[in-house]
Amino acid sequence: MSVAFTGEGGTSEGDFHEALNVASVWDLPVIFIIENNGYGLSTPVNEQYRCESLVDRAKGYGMEGVKIDGNNILTVINTVKGVREYCIQQQKPYLIECMTFRMRGHEEASGTKYVPKELFEEWVQKDPVKNYEQFLVNGEVLTADDVSAIKEELKNYIELELQVAYGAATLIPGTEEELKDVYATKKEKDAGKKIIVIENSSQREVSLSTTGSSLREKRFIDAIKEGLYQSMQHHGSLILMGQDIAEYGGAFKITEGFLNEFGKARVRNTPLCESAVLGAALGLSLEGFKTMVEMQFADFVSAGFNQVVNNLAKIHYRWGQNADVVVRMPTGGGVGAGPFHSQSTEAWFVHVPGLKVVYPSSPVDAKGLLIAAINDPNPVMYFEHKALYRSISGQVPEEYYEIEIGKAKWIQEGEDISIITYGSGVHQAHEYAQTCSDISFDILDLRTLLPLDYPSIKSSVARTGKVLLLHEDTLTGGIGGEIAAWISEHCFEMLDAPVIRCASLDTPVPFNTDLEKNFMASARLDACVKKLIGY
Hints:
There is one protein chain. By secondary structure, this protein is α/β, with parallel strands linked by helices. α8 (220-234) runs parallel beside α14. The termini are far apart. The protein is elongated, with a radius of gyration of 28 Å. The strands form six sheets. The chain has a seven-stranded mixed sheet, with helices on both faces. The chain is 37% helix and 19% strand.
């Protein structure tokens, strides 16, 4: 079971309500404890909520709750003991509201001037430490001398620990060490399993590093499904979570049939609680599980943004804990789905240290990168373009294999223009290149957007001296700007022309299909190529 703490201020956050709802719907033995001290920093409770007591909210989520004197040590201990037994026996959550008070500021700088004097006078009489001390003395459990001795022992202990801190060696920052600490190191715990690593595989011709491997023609969507299915077989600790992924099989039917094969404990429908579910995935990682969370559409991840960028991404750097979570992100336009189901959101995450961001363009990469993402101990944002699901096919090994995260691949080598791209842009670049017999294109598929394969980018720049960065994301703030800046800084002498970015318009994605075609980067590809070749 678990215990989750919050202050009364935190109960206004959406995460609080999502957590209570998920715990109740899933019958999770979680004790939620609210430390209600009357103020969110300086904001009193009458400006925070209108219910009489926060514990009243428990009923709204189908759980039991109790309000107690949070300053009475014995009341707190006995209540938590009883609630713990209830949660374990009934396999249900429980909410405890502990009424207490903060005698100092939220932090030292804020002070306590905002608190009326009479409140201090009231609550000083309820000091839990002094009252418990008096309780033990009155009960002849301790004497006055015992109390003095305990206080002296604690004071001496604190002073000794302070001396250790004061005597610590001066911290000498090391840049390489800091960068190394961002990601957890992958450990091979399944040595008996066969993993085929495919390197520099062409988009249309797959060469395997081992013999006897069977290749089959598969659609992009089926390759993803197979990679996920084989990962479920390979890892008994892998849990799948997402909206409608169980009986229904997901919005795109990738998990169809998984429920019958692996059971409801491992294939879990979720409420519309993206933040709580991503938080639950991190909690599972703390307990040694692997988790795949499916965003029904990549756009919806914004509702769970805090969990991704502040918790999943930073937990290894902060205290060495893995975040063994893959977030699958059906993304992209070209399907007439409009502004809330078609956005390209990958650039939101390449700015976040601690995340890995992958974006396959072919079936062979889709399967291999998904397996690699699940095997990786770090949080991975796995983008899959919806328009490629059933329109792209290719040769895929039937074995359980990985594509290395962080490695780009050449689609074709050329001498005139380098097109550096990923996802649907790979197909747009290749198809366009087929129409230009007089131009030799070098096409590089990044595959991984964080970390980027800078050596491969540099090699492509060196080969042609003219670079076109193509992505479906909007122009401003897209990853093309970051790559262009890197090329300008590190490959300037190799360039024969300015780096050109070809991206979608800086507008929301239109619903109207004609407007959407004009929105897409592909509508400007020909003009960008002509501008670059004519420079």
